[in-house]
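so the lab meeting is tmrw and i was supposed to have these ready like two days ago... anyway. pasting both below. for each one the top line is the aa sequence and the line under it is the structure tokens. i havent really looked at them closely yet so no promises
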Amino acid sequence: MIETILTLITARGGSKGVPRKNICPLAGKPLIAWTIEAARQSTLNSRIIVSTDDPEIADVSKEFGAEAPFLRPAEFATDSATSESVIEHTLSWLAQHDDFSPDLILLLQPTSPFRTSDDIDNAYKILQQENADALVSVTTNTRPVQWLRLINEEGFLADLGIGSRIDRRQDAELLYELNGGIYLIHTDVFLKERTLYPERTIPYVMPPERSLDIDNELDFLIADLVMRHNLHLGSAQKA
């Protein structure tokens, strides 16, 4: 049986770190356009829906080929609103208005513009091959956790007390951090557990250069420079 897939792109209008972040131009395109295009270029036969509370973001999303069939209610667009609550609202709306209930949910965040259509396809294939409930993209952690410090009440640096001392990075245990690029989960599992991280979650490892996550103005500047560099390299290779 062919799976029905919902590709959900979440993009509220009230970004704090970078105002209007989701439609700010990144290397000549609105930030959200890079994620919409990656989703459209993948081989997955899915409905690509943008959940936003902002009419302008909805219009831009439609311009680049995504659906924006509703505006997200204010209670799901606050700083404290979770991705899980946005997914639940979207599933409820689609079931009620479109009689659409997907087998699989693919959550993509616009703040990960370097995630490619190949990443999406490969992540889906891995989830299909493995006996798992969900998949989340990660990248290697570049700094040993033993190097982290906190500032105590006296104002001094204090060790976290995690593991033995590490002086060389190459001696540290290989750890992974979530990069926000891809979340895949079977809908029945999500509805039962109400989390994107059920116990049986497998990783999809992405390289650092495709794991840049935009949270503030500096992130945006770096991402713009890297994207323009990538586009220039691509044009030079085709010449």
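ok protien two:
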Amino acid sequence: MPIVPGLIERLAFRANLVPAAILDVHGGASLHAVALADELGVLAALDGVRTLSALASELACDEDALRRLLDALVAVGYVGRSGDEYWRTRTTERWLTDAGDANLAPFARFWVEVVLPYWREHAARAVREGTPGESLYDWLGDDEDAWATTQAGFRSAASLLVDPVADALGDVSGARVLDLGGGHGAYAVELACRGASVTLADRPPALEPAREAAADAGVDVTLVGGDYLADDLWRQLAGGDADANAGYDLVLLFNVLHGHAGREAATLLDRASAALAPGGRLALLDQFGRGGSSSVADVGIALIDLTYLITLGGGTLDPDTVNRWLGDAGASVIHTKTFRRAPGVKLQLVDAPSPDRH
């Protein structure tokens, strides 16, 4: 939780009497504390008022060491305390557990266990040369545990928006939907629950969470492993159907374009548009640069842009550039939606190009 200085402290920071950078240090430690608490099961165990001794026994933790972790969480507002009794705060209940609106704890673990180790190895090169050399996904290789942590983090972040995004897409009952790069399965499964026939295409190591999520929800999602920039995957997705009316009613590109340079992104948009049936729509969900709606949005966009450079060699999207790519593909944006829960994120609904474009 961001540290909120008191009035006197804010004045001291504004007057440059104390080093503001100390808050960044505290923020890093807070992130690690949340990730550790999730790993140990602390946040889930605090489903009511619990004594320190009972928690330590249940979680098989040293009592004094657990007290220090809990007190750190108290200090940053995630846990409440009275004597030796602890409980999770409303903030934690709502945003860091499965009992609330969204559980972002796995996203914190993804950052601590995957992003930051990768960052330390690749950040300097990315800034010096404009590319990290290998993307985060290439770096993960065949490490199944790291892929699971990564997809759990992505699914965690998606939990903030899956319902409002699905609502914004309208009635999908009976629609053929293609989800490109949506390996965690949050959106694919939700749309399948709403009656869509969904195909999800992503790298093979990324698909297991979607398979599990679909099974848990009791819905069918067709999973296709491959590189969505490669011709053979698109032939597989097309199924060899030469019918002019074949195609998808809705193609999702959710948090995909930011990982690709200009030519790749333009090619991907062109192929996604070509995969649409007449009257179909393309849906783009991503972080767009420029003019956030608040100071939090501005900070978030700038830091995410840097993160995408370091992890993927990409960046947040420029609206004019995206519009030009879409125009080249014969498509155009018909609706844009923003989300208060995710400053800087936009959903764009795009009309299919006319059939003679491809």
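from a quick look at the 2nd one: The mean pLDDT is 89. Residues 207 and 277 are 25 Å apart (CA to CA). will dig more after coffe
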